[in-house]
Design brief:
Blueprint lengths: L1 H26 L8 H25 L4 H28 L10 H7 L1 H25 L5 E2 L5 E2 L7
Antiparallel strand pairs: 1-2
Helix pairs in contact: 1-2, 1-5, 2-3, 3-4, 3-5
Length: 156
């Protein structure tokens, strides 16, 4: 299951990187083409599925409390991406069809990109931990504290 967790975590990182790419494609395209919708669909469908699968596989693989909590944080940050739009719309009374967007709303929505960077960093940390846990070449030996230590040796 650790290898599955590793693969799911790497797919999550790739999906986040693609999310940035889809945002760029959408931003620099003609609105009538609807290419920005790919960014929205990836963020509402693909990323949540991969993040939830990452959480489930981390728990089953016994990835450790720290790694499991990081996957929870990634899910919460992903949810915050949508909450940010809801809060901005409520506070500044703006929406997708608004003709004018106040400066405060633009500044607040700028957090969407920064939060995306935080998601990328956290998912990268999770993927690195999963990779090391699944593919390390040195077998781990259990220590008396219940942790694994690749450098520990057992005495005869």
């Amino acid at each position: 299951m650790r290898k599955v967790f590793s693969i799911v975590s790497i797919l999550a990182v790739l999906a986040v990187v693609l999310q940035f790419y889809f945002a760029g494609v959408g931003h620099f395209s003609i609105p009538e083409d609807g290419l920005f919708g790919i960014h929205g669909n990836n963020g509402r469908i693909v990323l949540p599925v991969l993040f939830i699968l990452s959480l489930i596989t981390a728990a089953i693989a016994r990835a450790g409390k720290g790694t499991i909590w990081l996957t929870v944080v990634a899910i919460l940050l992903l949810a915050f991406q949508t909450v940010l739009f809801i809060l901005t719309g409520t506070i500044f009374n703006v929406g997708p069809e608004s003709a004018e967007v106040p400066l405060g709303a633009s500044l607040m929505l700028g957090l969407h990109a920064l939060n995306g960077v935080a998601i990328l960093v956290i998912t990268s940390i999770i993927a690195r931990r999963a990779w090391v846990m699944a593919w390390r070449s040195t077998p781990a030996v259990a220590t008396d504290a219940g942790r694994t230590d690749a450098t520990a040796t057992t005495s005869p």
